[in-house]
Amino acid sequence: MTDVLRVGIVGAGGYTGSELLRLCQGHPRLSVEFVAARDNAGKALGDVLPSVLGVPELAGRLLERFEPEQARNLAGRIDVAFTALPHAASAKVAAALWQQGIQVIDLSADYRLRDAEVYERTYGPHPHPELLETAVYGLVELHRDALRGARLIAAPGCYPTSAILPLAPLLANQLVELEGIIIDAKSGVSGAGRKPLPSTHFSECSEGLRPYKVAGAHRHTPEIEQELGRLAGAPLQVVFTPNLCPMTRGILAVAYARAKPSTTLAQCVEAARQMFGSTLVHVLEEALPDTLWVRGSACAHVAYRIDERTRTVLAMCTLDNLAKGASSQALQALNAARGWDDALGLPRIAMFP
Ligand SMILES: NC(=O)c1ccc[n+]([C@@H]2O[C@H](COP(=O)([O-])OP(=O)(O)OC[C@H]3O[C@@H](n4cnc5c(N)ncnc54)[C@H](OP(=O)(O)O)[C@@H]3O)[C@@H](O)[C@H]2O)c1
């Protein structure tokens, strides 16, 4: 391993790609050497991402322009690539880079599902189903051992991370019933990516709050069920309701699960403390989580309560969809794959307020 890894970011003009660019700049063992775009190929970085203006190594000299995303002959230029493209497009670029011997961390959904049939039902035909077995799901808190040395990593989805993290300790320790789990999650608008859509137009979402793709229709449902079922040791189904919330960054997920007869709040908190230890997931005890406390940080906050009248466990989580829900999580997975500290180079204090 070289001291400093040379990094490529494909899709660097998008929201998760530009967040990667920002986070890589603060990482002591990474140097971004290649940034690629599709429609923006050939354009100056600062014209597409005004956030890099004034950073000479990004906007002035080395990385002056976006290159085309066709990934050919990059093996001599980069050691690691992040692919931050829409699904299916990402799978193709990631596979081409992986075949060149480059370590790849894909931020799309393309390599997250283990079962090719489930992928096809959810997203359509997979361009490289043969690689699904090779890819490692990049949720470090749950897959640390498998990530060590992994060359193809699937960074988890933002909603799935917010749902899986708070429920994982409960299911792994049989503290809740498997049937009847409900997850209600609210996401900031940057979760929809940079391309403008009528539904994410400022005047049509800035003061409203609405559910969408309800009753099993959201594509993240199988990913949540895959990981929770693995932890529970049995297949399970969840009701997952996503909501579009008028904020730029952040996800708040509240999961409801029926407590086992002897389950106490102290057991839930202790199970989470044991599972997350010194990782980037913090277990709150007194406070209830707030998206503002994790904005721009690589951390997630989880908290628990039990409604004793109905014996329902409330498992809550906040995270930044572009950080722990995407780009810092991808870097955390790279850190784990390389045997570095989880938090190396990552911000642990949120922008506040
Ligand atoms: N946003 C989030 O909170 C979030 C969280 C977790 C995971 N993800 C996943 O991460 C990936 C990137 O998401 P994002 O939010 O960064 O998206 P985005 O802002 O829309 O950026 C996507 C980038 O991909 C490039 N691109 C390349 N091939 C493309 C194609 N065939 N069609 C459209 N764009 C193409 C575009 O470059 P040009 O502009 O140059 O064409 C664009 O900059 C997606 O798979 C998404 O599901 C997103």
Folded structure, characterized:
The structure is a single chain. The protein is of the alpha/beta class and 353 residues long. Helix content is 30%, strand content 20%. Strand 13 and strand 14 (312-319) form a beta hairpin. It is globular. The mean pLDDT is 94. It is built from 11 helices and 14 strands. The protein has 2 domains: 5-155 and 326-338, NAD(P)-binding Rossmann-like Domain (Rossmann fold, 3-Layer(aba) Sandwich), CATH 3.40.50.720; 159-319, 2-Layer Sandwich (Dihydrodipicolinate Reductase, domain 2). The strands form 2 sheets. Strands 3-2-1-4-5-7-6 form a 7-stranded parallel β-sheet, with helices on both faces. A 7-stranded mixed β-sheet has the order 9-10-8-11-14-13-12. The chain binds NADP nicotinamide-adenine-dinucleotide phosphate (NAP). NADP nicotinamide-adenine-dinucleotide phosphate binds at residues 11, 13-17, 37-40, 69, 84-87, 89-90, 107-108, 157-158, 190-191, 193-195, 321-322, 325-326.
Secondary-structure blueprint:
Elements lengths: L4 E6 L4 H11 L4 E8 L7 H4 L7 H5 L6 E2 L11 E4 L5 H11 L3 E4 L9 H8 L12 E2 L2 H8 L4 E3 L3 H15 L8 E7 L14 H4 L4 E2 L9 H12 L5 E7 L6 E8 L6 H12 L4 E3 L16 E8 L4 E8 L3 H15 L16
Parallel strand pairs: 1-2, 1-4, 2-3, 4-5, 5-7, 6-7, 8-10, 12-13
Antiparallel strand pairs: 8-11, 9-10, 11-14, 13-14
Helix pairs in contact: 1-11, 6-11, 7-9, 7-10
The chain binds NADP nicotinamide-adenine-dinucleotide phosphate.
